[in-house]
Amino acid sequence: MSSENRLLDDLARVASGALGALTGVRDEVETRMREQFERILGRMNLVRREEFDAVQAMAANARAAQEALEARVAALEAKLAEQEAKGEAPSRTRKSKSADPGAPPA
User: Half-sphere exposure (CA, 13 Å, Cβ side) for 68?
Assistant: First the structure.
C-alpha cells in the first residue's frame, strides 16, 4: 500500500509541477502579447482619451458660439428688413475723427 501512496504522491507532485509550468507559460504569453499590442498601437499614432475629450469639448464650445452668432445675425437681419420695410434708412453711428485716436488723418 505504501508503494501506491508513493506513486500517487509522485503523480500529484508531477501534476502540480506541470500546472505551475503551464501557469508560467500563460503569464509569459500574456506579457509578450501585451508588449506586441503596445508596440503596434504605438505605431498607429492614436490619440489618448484625454486629448480626444479636450478636442471634443472645444468643438462643442465652438458649435455653441457659432449657433449664438447665427441667431444674432438673424436677429440683426430681421431688424434691418423691418427698418427697410418701414422706409427708414438704417441708422449708422459714426465716430467723430477727434473721438477715434486710431483713425488716419484726413
Answer: 6
Q: What is the pLDDT of residues 43-76, one digit of tens each?
A: 888 889 999 999 999 999 999 999 999 999 999 9
Nearest CA among 92, 42, 4 for reference residue 12 = 4
The verdict on pTM exceeding 0.85 is no
Residue 101 cell numbers, joined:
485716436
**Cell 444674432 belongs to residue:** 72
Instruction: Give how far Cα 30 sits from Cα of 27, 35, 89, Å.
Output: 5, 9, 78
Q: Per the structure block, which three cell numbers stand in for 74?
A: 438673424
Which grid coordinates are listed for 99? 473721438
Q: Which residues contact 73 (CB under 8 A, 6 or more apart)?
A: none
Is there a contact between 90 and 80 (Cβ–Cβ < 8 Å)? yes
